[in-house]
Design a protein that fits this description.
- The chain starts with a strand and ends with a helix.
- The chain is built from 3 helices and 5 strands, in the order E-H-H-E-E-E-E-H.
- The protein is globular and about 35 Å long.
- It has one domain: RelE-like (YaeB-like fold).
- It has about 90 residues and is an alpha+beta fold.
- It has a 5-stranded mixed β-sheet.
Length: about 90
Amino acid sequence: MWRIVITSTFKQRYKQLDRILTGKVDEAIKSLVESENPLKLGEPKKGRLRGAYGYSVSRACRILYTVNWIEQTIHLLRVCTHKQVHQ
C-alpha cells in the first residue's frame, strides 16, 4: 500500500472543486494507493513535467502526481483541468 503526500497546491485546488468532483478525486486517489504500480494508471508527462504522471478523473479534471518507489509514496502535485496541468 502506498502512502500519499499532498502538496499545498493540490490542497488549494482540491478545495475549489465541487462536491461531485471531490468524490471522483477521492476515488482516484484510492485507486492509486491500492495499485501495485500507480504509474500504470496515469499518462507520463513530457517536457518540463517529465517524471510526472496525469491521472484522468473526468473529461475535464486530472491529478498530476509523481511516485517515489524507495519511500513507497505518491506525491499529489495538483488537481486541475487538462490545460492547467501544463501551466
